[in-house]
Amino acid sequence: AGDIEAGKAKAAVCAACHGADGMAVIPGYPHLKGQNEQYLVSSLNAYKAKQRNGGLAAVMQAQAAMLSDADIANLAAYYASLK
Amino acid sequence: AGDIEAGKAKAAVCAACHGADGMAVIPGYPHLKGQNEQYLVSSLNAYKAKQRNGGLAAVMQAQAAMLSDADIANLAAYYASLK
After folding, report:
1. B76: closest CA of chain A, how far (Å)
2. Is the whole model's pTM more than 0.80, yes or no?
3. Least CB–CB distance from A46: residue in B31, B38, B57
4. Which of B23, B25, B47, B54 is surrounded by the fewest CB atoms within 10 Å?
């Protein structure tokens, strides 16, 4: 599993849309707080591989493109850890 | 917005993977409880239109293919309403 602290640091970028606590203030974006870690990894990889399209997917594809596998694991661990 | 009661009835099918209370017991599936309504509509439409691929997307494409626009609105309203 990822490193929660490293994920927290990396999540500073994500907070703009997904909220500082993982609760998205913008209705079209998902809450990430307490989401399943494995699902978060699978979703981020799908955006990174441009397998997820439609809706606001393009925004996330651009974000995910900048993430390494370690970043993805750490971010997933961080958001899954939020209760 | 959708009809929460109609969504609850329709959600019986979804509970198998996403849990009776919208908390997925299977790690690879997302929790839906309290998720943003607009995001749920956008995601279901993306699965229905086969715009979302990768990971377990194929499973959801098959499910979403059976849903009408009203079903999608009602399911989104229902899951967003769970606190």
Report:
1. 12
2. yes
3. B57
4. B25
